[in-house]
Design goal:
Keywords: ATP-binding, Kinase, Nucleotide-binding, Serine/threonine-protein kinase, Transferase. Its EC number is 2.7.11.1. InterPro entries: ARM-like, ARM-type_fold. There is one protein chain. The chain has 313 residues and is an all-alpha fold. The chain has a domain of 112 residues. Helix content is 72%, strand content 0%. The protein has 19 helices and no strands. Helix 5 crosses helix 7, helix 8 runs antiparallel to helix 9 and helix 13 runs parallel beside helix 15. The radius of gyration is 22 Å and the shape is elongated. The N and C termini lie far apart (55 Å). The mean pLDDT is 92.
Length: 313
């Protein structure tokens, strides 16, 4: 109430945020802090030029969201909060350090379908792409932005086809840049999977995207989630075009089928990965020419192994 009574006075907002932050470590205060997100973001929007207030507000929101995720509470940030955060992103789009923190906040918020939908409604996708173009070397920013893109792209009521189509070259560039960084590559593979699901690729995109996903598999064989996401992305590409299936078979760096077989044997205890691999195989055998080549790679033997490994799935 004290903050709401004096929106225009920056010092009041700063002191209010500091005082709220002092309750963060008190577990009993958490339910009350959950109700403060709108007040905090509105203070940030009202005093958008004060970087100190932006930083303190962002840190407090991160603390509240972290606790919410730890306790399994899904924080559905409403549209006004999403709008305030977008306003902050645009005002401080050149500040790499602050953006790094803000993008982490957006990533955590977008774990909620409602929050993701509200971020989509306020039109955040072009801003995320702009940030990725500006800071392609920043691992934290790339990880967060790709995760947010994934959350927004898998939304069922997607009306942002044009914006998402522009996301493909940017996301591919992020994956290319961070192929050896498993965490970022995993996030980028998820984003590419979502873009493929939404049909955001042109005919000329299938082959290079498939080759890039195979490179991600080669560079990060130990990361089961990345392997699963890359296989799901490849399956979506193959569903759309035989070109992608042929790119997997004829990759100049080595057969994609042999690579995927190796990945399966590396993660024998991962049913989700095996399921993704079967989905990919199922899409590939829709093409007669591809199926003949798969037989030469003894794929039937692999499928029998999977069937024995997971008889009840």
């Amino acid at each position: 109430e004290f903050m709401q009574a004096s929106w225009d006075i920056e010092e009041v907002q700063a002191k209010g945020i500091q005082h709220l932050a002092s309750f963060v470590k008190d577990k009993s205060a958490f339910p009350y802090l959950l109700t403060c997100t709108e007040v905090i973001t509105l203070a940030m929007k009202t005093h958008i030029d004060s970087l100190d207030l932006q930083v303190e507000g962002c840190i407090l929101l991160l603390e509240i969201l972290s606790q919410a995720l730890e306790q399994g509470v899904m924080m559905a940030l409403d549209e006004s909060v999403a709008s305030c955060l977008l306003h902050t992103v645009r005002k401080h789009s050149e500040n790499e350090v602050f953006l790094s923190m803000l993008c982490t906040l957006l990533m955590m918020a977008s774990a909620s379908e409602v929050a993701a939908e509200n971020l989509r409604k306020v039109g955040i996708i072009p801003d995320l792409l702009s940030i990725l173009r500006r800071f392609p070397h920043n691992e934290k920013i790339c990880l967060s932005c790709c995760a947010v893109l994934w959350s927004l792209a898998v939304s069922e009521n997607n009306a942002d086809q044009a914006a998402l189509t522009r996301a493909l070259p940017v996301t591919s560039a992020v994956l290319q840049e961070h192929l050896q960084n498993g965490v970022v590559a995993e996030s980028a593979c998820s984003a590419l999977w979502a873009l493929a699901l939404q049909g955001c690729l042109a005919d000329s995109d299938y082959e290079p995207t498939a080759a890039l996903l195979l490179d991600a598999l080669r560079m990060n064989p130990e990361r089961a989630v990345l392997v699963k996401n890359a296989c799901l992305a490849l399956a979506s590409l193959v569903r759309l075009s035989e070109t992608a299936a042929l790119a997997i078979l004829l990759d100049p760096k080595g057969s994609g089928i042999e690579l995927i077989k190796d990945e399966y044997h590396l993660h024998l205890e991962e049913p989700g990965l095996a399921e993704a691999l079967c989905l990919l195989m199922n899409e590939m055998v829709q093409y007669d020419e591809v199926m003949l080549d798969m037989r030469s790679h003894k794929v039937e033997k692999l499928l029998c192994e999977i069937k024995l490994q997971f008889p009840f799935s």
